[in-house]
Amino acid sequence: MKGFKRVAADMSRVKVPAVPRVSRTKMTVLWLVGGALVVGLLVVLSLNHSFPLLQTRGEIANRQRDLLVFATALALLVLVPVYFMIFTFAWRYRAGHKQDYKPEWDTHKGYEALWWGIPIAIISVLAVVTWVTSHSLDPFKPLASSQKPLQVQVVALQWKWLFIYPEQGVASVNEVAFPASRPVEFTMTSDAPMNSFWIPQLAGQIYVMSGMSTKLHVVADVPGVYQGMSSNISGKGFADMKFKGAGNDRT
């Protein structure tokens, strides 16, 4: 006990250096410069790279991208003010501040309505959008088109993709070809562990399981090569379970 008191007394005599004072203007400049550097670094690192989730080329993927952007914008309506207030309060009421702290607003009806009303409004909007898009983006729902959909059967193997064209009587492995601007109806299953079929530029991922069948309707707006993959960790060969979707201008 005496040793503890002696240590405490010694520590009380230690002089802690004063925290350097930084003006509000300098702090604002530092934040702006730091933010600009981060944005610049991200731009440089993203050069010569593709972003399939944003560079969509199909009706379904376009609508899913718009939904993602919309949901992100709604989230930023909450995140940006919250983080702004965190740093503002931390700076305003830092050690040695001379600001008056008067928390008489804890039962303010207007403030209560504000910080409860905004989240409720955002959740309500997201609920409506989720309900509508859950039906409009149903993967079983055929796409509106004057052309008959191309039938393609997909089987997830270990560790590759088998594509069967029942109307043409042919099949391929790790490559699927389809006409651009013509709907494609994928009927999918698995002959291996559960997997996930995904062509990011054309549609979202769809899980496939052994003994079950599911569907996905897509259409490519323009001819091109679309990278596909397995997006579900299913074992040792998962990382190499990729395929190419070749959208051509044939009908």
Features:
251 residues; alpha+beta; Immunoglobulin-like; 5-stranded mixed β-sheet; 4 helices; 10 strands; elongated
Q: pLDDT average, as an integer?
A: 86
| Global structural class | alpha+beta
Beta fraction: 15-25%
The major sheet is characterized as: 5 strands, mixed
What is the name of the CATH superfamily of the domain at 150-248?
Cupredoxins -  blue copper proteins
Low-pLDDT windows of residues: none
Per the CATH scheme, the topology name of the domain at 150-248 is Immunoglobulin-like
Backbone shape: elongated
Structure, described:
There is one protein chain. By secondary structure, this protein is an alpha+beta fold. The chain has a domain at 150-248: Cupredoxins -  blue copper proteins (Immunoglobulin-like), CATH 2.60.40.420. Helix content is 38%, strand content 22%. It has 4 helices and 10 strands; from the N terminus they run ααααββββββββββ. It has helices spanning 2-12, 24-46, 59-92, 109-136; strands spanning 150-156, 161-165, 170-173, 175-179, 184-190, 195-198, 206-208, 214-218, 224-230, 242-248. The strands form 2 sheets. Strands 3-2-1-5-8 form a 5-stranded mixed beta sheet. Helix 3 (59-92) packs antiparallel against helix 4 (109-136). The longest helix has 34 residues, at 59-92. The radius of gyration is 28 Å and the shape is elongated. The N and C termini lie far apart (89 Å). The model has no long low-confidence stretch (mean pLDDT 86).
